[in-house]
């Protein structure tokens, strides 16, 4: 086991990793931008180093500064969290070359899965079929129109190196595709430094189901069941739950087996998530693999009773998986709510500013992951996530009742949040019945067509 871990991230995920390291007896190093000096992860770490100004490119995405901080502090491992450099193959490769343990998969695995069109090809060869789409990146508008004519509309344009909904555009006809194709390329280049896009047939009202896996260096791979991440707005997840309600048990078993197979196909190591789309007829398709710990990992922890970050660290240190598949006991139902500093009444506009007061709910089956405290100032330069509220119940009905209680107890004063929006979602009759799909928010909550 390494001795000191540098966390190349900020906010609640940095704090989450620090806590896991402390329980394992590991020292921690927090890195931060100049405007994050008062962030909670900086206060809780054993050591803190400023790595640059507020711009992400100059701090949290600055590989030389982060590696230098590791060398100066004597850190022999780096945990990237999620976002920023978590799925950056070059960063993982630099860590490897500097004899610093990267707490994540190999740079080769990140490369294989980081390019979405390449990932689909690899999985297709392994018999794991994706959504019908172009054979690799689409070079120009003419090629895009040819695919759309053969597949039929609607089609969706996606960034090859993308994620989080950026570089993604839906086209219903030739005119829309002509307009949106270059827009998607420009956004992809801006967000990921790679303008390549590919095209897929757009599925009507699909569910977004993902499988959490963990793999060690010895070929052992296990899954921790599924999460339903269908509640999204513009491809950004807002709420996740496990298990997925109204999901056929045969489909659940098939997806879990495919996720394990996917990890073994690329000799994967560490925590990862294999994501699928399931259509109304029960057909399922590989979408992508996220080669990191995810925002919604606490949902899985709640139903499995297993600390995924701790296991991720143990695996990175060279240990064999301490858990076997048959010993994982799934209990109850869990839901995670992403509490963002956004004005849901004004097109979910992100808001920065001072948190005058925060009240954290408690009670049985309640967990809150947050870096926010009363008096904390939310900077305008990063993700708007303030907290994650996770509730657990013996069944979905109990979890929803607990969610309503805790959402009303959770107070964040000083700036708007998505708390009122989440209350609106869980009061929706269709949501209560589990009739969810990726456009649910647009159709059932916002009344969009």
Order of strands side by side in the largest beta sheet?
13-12-9-10-11-14-21-19
The global form is: globular
Segments where pLDDT lies below 50 for 5+ residues?
none
Mind telling me the CATH class of the largest domain?
Alpha Beta
Can you summarize the main beta sheet? 8 strands, antiparallel
Overall description:
The strands form 6 sheets. Strands 13-12-9-10-11-14-21-19 form an 8-stranded antiparallel β-sheet, sandwiched between helices. Strands 3-2-1-4-5 form a 5-stranded parallel β-sheet. Strands 7-6-8 form a 3-stranded antiparallel β-sheet, with helices on one face. Helix 7 packs across helix 8 (174-192). It has 3 domains: 4-103, Rossmann fold; 132-201, ATP-grasp fold, A domain (Dna Ligase, domain 1), CATH 3.30.1490; 207-445, ATP-grasp fold, B domain (D-amino Acid Aminotransferase, Chain A, domain 1). By secondary structure, the protein is α+β, with helices and mostly antiparallel strands. The radius of gyration is 21 Å and the shape is globular. The longest helix has 19 residues, at 174-192. It has helices spanning 11-23, 40-44, 63-73, 89-97, 107-114, 116-125, 141-151, 174-192, 249-265, 297-304, 308-316, 396-409, 419-426, 429-432, 440-445; strands at 4-7, 27-33, 47-52, 77-79, 101-102, 155-159, 169-171, 197-201, 207-215, 221-233, 236-242, 270-278, 284-290, 333-340, 342-343, 349-350, 353-354, 357-359, 366-370, 377-378, 385-393, 411-413. The model has no long low-confidence stretch (mean pLDDT 96). 34% of the residues lie in helices and 26% in strands. The protein has 15 helices and 22 strands.
